[in-house]
Amino acid sequence: MKRSRRLTNITFIHAADLHLDSPFHGISRLPEEVYRRIKNSTFKSAENVFKLAIDEQADFILLAGDLFDEANRSLKAQMFLRKQFLKLKENNIQVYVIFGNHDHLGGDWTPIEWPDNVHIFSAEDIEEKSFYKDGRLAASIYGYSYPERSVFANKAAEIKKTTDAPLHIGMIHGTLSGESGHDPYCPFSLQDLKNGQMDYWALGHIHKRQVISAADPAVIYPGNTQSRHMKETGEKGCYLVNVCSGELSFEFKAVSDVLWETACIDISGTKQMTELISLMQDAFQSFRNRGKPACVKMVLTGETPSYLAEGQAGIADEILDIFHEEEREEDAFIWLTAIEDQTDAALSGIERDAFFQELLQEMHEFQYFSLILDDLERHPVFRRNGERFNEEDFRDIRAQAEKLLLHELKTLKR
Q1: Mean pLDDT computed over 112-122
Q2: pTM
Q3: DSSP letter for each residue of 146-207
Q4: Which class is 10-254 in CATH?
Q5: For residue range 236-265, what is the model confidence (pLDDT) as tens digits?
Q6: For residues 119 and 128, is the Cβ–Cβ distance under 8 A?
Q7: Is CB count within 10 Å lower at the N or C end of the chain?
Q8: CA distances to 173, 226, 255, 388 from 223, in Å
Q9: Rounded Cα distance, 89 and 115, in Å
Q10: Whose CA is closest to 105, among 122, 129, 80?
Q11: How do strand 200-204 and strand 210-213 relate by DSSP bridges?
Q12: What Å distances lie between residue 49 and 18, 66, 132, 232, 301, CA to CA?
């Protein structure tokens, strides 16, 4: 971005997909302290975003949709945000909000009064909200909130300049063409965004952090601020954006309270269970060095050692118990969520069997997963709490089906 017009230096935060009140389905065997920390992690991560804004003396924050996990947002979550927004007001920080498919304006909730530094975009049409600094129009911010959960119109294409502000920012909660694994709400193309002549596009909806375009215009998905399951691994956060002398720069800032990670361990050549546990402890230490709690799935790879041969079906649960016992009292706990065996056992007679090979071929050539799962994805409960299946999910399903098939055939041969 380069302007010949006189510009005011601006600093702002771009965040999205806070998903306050996320239920964290599927977490089991958790001590109360660990569960409470994970359950509260979306709130703590959001608080970290607002603290960052204050520390960086930001002029404003852009929140690009799905602040709440449900359209029927809880009073607790609303009051939490109100408290945070009041802190921002005390520091002269404005807040610009669009609501997305999870927290659309068609929900049923107890309304509260927001502080006057909070500017919420309506669901009726694209709106422009002006930001003034030092008495001058410094930026025009354009956005749109969802009136209901499913919005399939290309609202991004409707965002155009309407003022002579030196900085123009578009906010949209939607799906860039080619993205998979998410509902295609408010779909748009990169060309649609370029046509809008914005300087910066503050996107939301996709939970994976992505810089779609670094300049002319800058187009960014910050991802969600807190992982909620094993499909959302790695650091999560927001973007700190600076506009100085007509130049726009941005930097990712990690804010997540609890990490979700997958660790792969090659156990080829290990002879004893103690060696496996030692390797796992080393992996745990690498996560502990980050200084944050983490939920970790351990994936075992390499050749299958003899101590993990048949007859050891319950050993994974025993290992889980060992590691859980050590982590119960840790503030920065490393919680082992699962142990996944992806080791390569030596080929048995069954695996060389022509019938088994034919079944595997049929399974890998099967192309209709999406049709079979369509009814599930349309179910109201799934639409509220689940995420669309993608190619990675299909590969996982095939791998698990192969293991199950092999196990059942071995059982029949006994």
Answers
A1: 98
A2: 0.85
A3: -SSS---S--GGG----S--S-EEEEEES-BTT--SS---S-B-HHHHHHTT-SEEEEES--
A4: alpha beta
A5: 999 999 999 989 999 999 999 999 999 999
A6: no
A7: C
A8: 11, 9, 11, 16
A9: 8
A10: 122
A11: unpaired
A12: 10, 15, 23, 18, 37
Burial 28-44 (b: 16+ CB within 10 A, else e): eebeeebeebbbebbbe
Banded pLDDT at 347 (limits 50, 70, 90): very low
d(CA 200, CA 254): 20
| Residue 397 identity | I
Q: In the beta sheet, which residues pair with residue 62? A: 14, 96
End-to-end CA distance of the chain: give it in Å, rounded. 70
Number of CB atoms found within 10 A of residue 254's CB: 16
User: Which DSSP state fits 303?
Assistant: B
Mean pLDDT of 328-355: 76
HEC string of 138-151 equals EEEEEECCCCCCCC
Backbone angles phi and psi of 395, in degrees to 5: -65, -40
- Tell me if 45 sits within 8 A of 253, measured CB to CB: no
Contacts of 218 (CB under 8 A, 6+ apart): 1, 199, 200, 201, 211, 241, 248, 250
- Residue identified by tokens 């970290």 is 48
Between vectors from CA 386 to CA 124 and to CA 35, what angle results, nearest 5°? 110
CB 10 within 8 A of CB 167: yes
What is the average per-residue pLDDT within 288-295? 93
d(CA 71, CA 74): 9
Domain ranges of the chain: 10-254, 258-346, 352-414
User: DSSP for 26-47?
Assistant: T--S--HHHHHHHHTHHHHHHH
The tens digit of pLDDT for each residue in 196-215 reads 999 999 999 999 999 999 99
Please report the pLDDT score of residue 385 as a whole number: 55
Q: Classify strands 10-15 and 237-244 as parallel, antiparallel or unpaired.
A: antiparallel
Three-state secondary-structure class, residue 372: helix
The residue length of the chain stands at: 414
pLDDT (tens digit per residue) in 329-342: 788 899 999 998 88
Between CA 259 and CA 97, with CA 50 as vertex, the angle to 5 degrees is 105
